[in-house]
Amino acid sequence: QVQLAESGGGLVQVGGSLRLSCIASGRSFSSYAMGWFRQASGKEREFVGAISRSGTTTYNVPSVKGRFTISRDNPKNAVYLQMNSLKPEDTAVYYCAASVGVLPQNFGLVNYYNYWGQGTQVTVSS
To answer: pLDDT of the chain along its 126 residues, tens only?
Structure first.
């Protein structure tokens, strides 16, 4: 069993930056691939990016490439989402999720993840 808790969201102006953190409780954090998703009001949850169990490989959707960076610190049971050059369309609730799966082609699937955090709101104002 893993519990995830996101933090770091808030209100930021266009072009600004935020760093989201996700802290996991429980055992064997390094056994999980970690993903970041977001859900804007009235829209479906969408994949933002993921990081492999070791942290050596990351995946991002085209809309955030070059702006968002995912990293993890396994000894600290933490995964991070550094968001730069934020745009109004980045406004959403951001969720971290943990998956026991290892297939990168599935990292974008909501149902590939076993555990979810409660989410943190990010609002980008223009």
So the answer is: 899 999 999 999 999 999 999 999 988 999 999 999 999 999 999 999 999 999 999 999 999 999 999 999 999 999 999 999 999 999 999 999 999 998 999 999 999 999 999 999 999 998
73/16 Cα distance (integer angstroms): 24
Q: How far is CA 12 from the centre of its chain?
A: 18
Asked whether 117 and 95 are in contact (CB, 8 A), the reply is yes
49/58 Cα distance (integer angstroms): 7
CA-to-CA distance for 94 and 62, rounded, in angstroms?
Answer: 17
Strands 18-25 and 3-7: antiparallel
Nearest to 17 by CA among 85, 77, 68, 72: 85
CA distance 22 to 105: 23
